[in-house]
Amino acid sequence: MTDAIAAPPQRVSRRTIIAAIVRKDFRAFRRDRFYFYMSIVGLILYVAIFWFLPDTVDESITIGATGAGIEQLLEQATGAESEGLTIVPFDSRETLMTAVEEGDQDVALGLAFPQDFFAAIAAGEPTTVSVIATAEVPDELRTAMDSFIKEAAFAISGNPLPVDYQEEILGVDRLGDQVSLREKFRPMLAFLVLLIEMMSLAGLIAAEMQSRTVTAVITTPARLSDFLTAKIIFGALLAFTQVVILLVAIRSLGTEPVLLLATLLLGSLMVTAFALIAGAFGKDFISVLFWSMLFMIPMLIPAFGLLFPGSASTWIRAIPSYGLVETITGTTVYGEGWTEALPNLGLVAAWTVVAFIIGMGILRKKVQSL
Amino acid sequence: MTNTGNAIEVSDLSFAYGDIQAVDGVSFSVAPGEILGFLGPNGAGKSTTIKMLTGQLRPDSGSISVLGMTMPAQTLDIQARIGVCFEEKNLYENMSGKENLDFFARLYGIKGRDFDPFLRKVGLIDRADDRVATYSKGMRQRLMMTRAMINDPDILFLDEPTDGLDPVSSQAVRNVIKAEAERGAAVILTTHDMHEADQLSDRVAFINEGRIAALDTSDNLKLEYGQRTVRIRSRNGGDVDVRVISLDESNAGDQIREAVAVEGLMTIHTEEATLEDIFIKLTGRGLDA
Fold first, then answer.
1. What is the pLDDT of residue B61?
2. Fold adopted by A61-157
3. Which of A7, A150, A238, B11 minimizes the number of CB atoms within 10 Å of its CB?
4. Which residues of B touch A23 (CB under 8 A)?
5. pTM of the prediction?
6. Which CATH class is domain B8-223?
7. Which of B86, B103, B107 sits opposite A215 (nearest CB)?
C-alpha cells in the first residue's frame, strides 16, 4: 500500500457522498433480476391492460314488457331510446321471464302488466305491475321502474300525477359524464407502479440492513443521514420515472401536465417513505413482501373505490393514497386543475411527512442496533 | 485530553445497552505502527468498544482521542482516516470486487484510483471484475481487508480478519496486517485466535465483562501470569513416567538433572503458558464462552 496518491480531501462534500450512494443503488437495482424484471414486466403489463380495457360506456338499458295494451305503452315510450331506454315486447309472461333469466336480447328486467291495467287506471283503482328481475340487478334500477310505471300510467290515462318531483344532485353532477373502465383503471395502474417500486426499494434497504453493508458505509465519512437521503432520492426517482413512463404510454399527461407531474412526484415520495418503514422491518424477501403488502393493500382501496362507485365510505378519505387517486382521476378524466387538487395534495404531503419521520426514525434505530 | 502522540487514547470509556453495562471504564492507548490484540469472549465488550472508536456508537461517558482528534465532535474527520474490516462479510454481492472498492473510495473522496496494486497484493487481481457473489469466503475476506485500506488509513480496526480462512488465505491476510503496521498504521486486532494474537500483536488486551483484565506484551503476560515448565517422559518397565518441573522453582536445575539421569529417557519438552491459559487464569472463563 505504498503507491502514492493525492491525499484525500479533508472533508468530502455531502453531495459527492450522496451521489456515490445513489449511483451504487441504481447499479444494485439493475443487477437485482427479480426487482428489475418485475418493474419492466409490470410496466409493460399495465400499459397493455390499459389499452385492452374498453374505453366506451354503455349507457342504455333494455326492458322487456308484456301484458294488455303493451302497444300503447310502446307508443308512449317513443323517444325513450334517445335517453338510453329500449323496450322490447314479449308475447307472454313466461317468455319474458325466460328472457330476463337468460339475458336474451340484453333484457335487464321485465315489466308484466295485468290484463285489467287500463280499466283500473281509467277507474282510478289500484293495480299492480310485476317487475321481473334477477338478483344481480341493482336495487336502484328496480325502484326506478316504479317511476317509469307511474309515468306510463299518467301518459295513458291523461290524469296528472298527485306528486310532482324534482331532482337534486349533491356534489359534482356526473350525469352523462360516465367514466369508462379504462379511465377508471388509470389511477389504479399508476398506483400499482408506485407500489411495485416501493417493494423494490424496501427490498434494497432490507438487503443493506441484513448484509450490514450500511455499517460499512457509515464508518466512512458518510453519515447515516447521507445514506437515508440517497435512498430517498433513489426511491423517488425510480418510482417517479416508472410512473411517468406509464402515463406517457397510456397518453395521460395531456391535460394539466405540470399538476400531474407534481402529483406523481409527491406520490413517489410518499411510497418511498413507506418503503423506508417496510425496508427497516424486512429481514428477507418474504418479510419485505409481507410489510409491503401491509401498506399496499389499504393504499389500493381508494383506487378500488373508483371501480365500484357508491361503495366508498367516508373513512377512505383518511387513507394516504386517497388524495393521490382523486387528483389523478380529477385531472385526467374531468380536467380539474390546481384549485380542486390542492386540498388532496396537501393531504398526501402531510401523510408523506409523517411516513418519512416514522421511517427514518425506525431505520436510524435499526442501524444503531446492528 | 492532551495529544500524547498516540494514535488512539481511550480513557474511562463506558457504554450500557439499557441495564446491561457492555463497557465499563475501559482505558488504553495504541501507538502508531503498533498492533494491539483485543481478546475476549463473545459479549465481553470488544465490539461495543470498537463501535465507539469507529463512530457507530456514542459513549455514555469517558473520552476518545483518535489521531489527536476527539470523538464524537470530530467523528467525520476521524472516519476519513480509519479503515474498518468487519467480522461480517458486508460487501455488495451484485457488484464486482473492483466496483466495491470504487464505491467505497468515492465515499472518501477518492476517484479514479488504480486498485490493481491492492488487488495484486491480496491475490484477487484475476477475479477483480467478477461479482462478489461468486467469491469464496477467503476471497471475500481478502477483499474486505483491501477495502479497509483503500484510503491509506492511519488506523485499522480488524475484527476476526482470519476467521474461517484456509491457511493460505490466513497467511496472506497476516502479511497484509504486518505490512500496514510497518507502514505506520496503528492496528486494533479483535480475535478469538490466541495463536494469531500472539504471533501478530505487539501488545494484547484481555477484555472481560466490559473491563480490561490485563494489557501488556504477550511475553510480559506470560512471565507475569504463566508458569514455565519442563515436561520429561521416561520409560519405567512397562509404564511411562511423566515429570513436570516448574522453571520458577529455585531448585529447578537439580530436579531436571535428576530427571534426565534415569534410564529409559524418552522426551524432554519445555512448556510455557498460552495466552488462553492466562486469560482463563485471569477471568475464570475461556475465550469461547
1. 92
2. D-Maltodextrin-Binding Protein; domain 2 (3.40.190)
3. A7
4. 103
5. 0.73
6. alpha beta
7. B86
